[in-house]
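>> received
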Amino acid sequence: MRQRTNIVERLTMEATLSPVIPTGADDSRSESSAEWRDLLFMRECCYGAYLSIFFLVFLNASHAMACTLVPGNFHQVTVLRGRVVGKSLGSLGFRWLRQSFSVSDATLTLYEYRFADNNADLTRTNPAKEIAVVTVSSDGKFDFGSVPKGHYSIGVSVKNSNRMGGLFYVEVTDKVKATDKITLDVSPINPDCTGGNEFIEKKL
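>> returned
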């Protein structure tokens, strides 16, 4: 730090010196300028390193933040049949692309709805009441058949995948326009809640 201060002082003094410069001063000035350029280069390198470290810390923190979905957002439908789609594509997980893949190894479980139920409630203590279980066909299609009116949650698990799957809340009712089919996108969810876990209904 003292060396840098000395260089600054020397450059300041040179700027205020008389135009008459003693012999050998040009060499001294060249050395000072070279030292100053070295210091500037080192400072820029340090700033670059600091920015890189900050970016990596921020990126890791953003990935560590989990997306929290609000339970009880019911989709009103008249039937529970349709198709399961999705794919883990990372940065290429565009909506149209991931929903072009059928999921052929998924199991759907229909549960009686309980307030604030979640994935933990379905498998641990005090589980929700299981109503029916269906396995999708080779092209991802499923059909729960005739389901009484009421509120339910649909848990989707995909074989050999701990990232794909989902939990969807539905109300089976006859007070809305008839449902043709539903599509369940079980692609992985990003930390900012974009990505999968999308419920798509097509009316008749």
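>> The radius of gyration is 32 Å.
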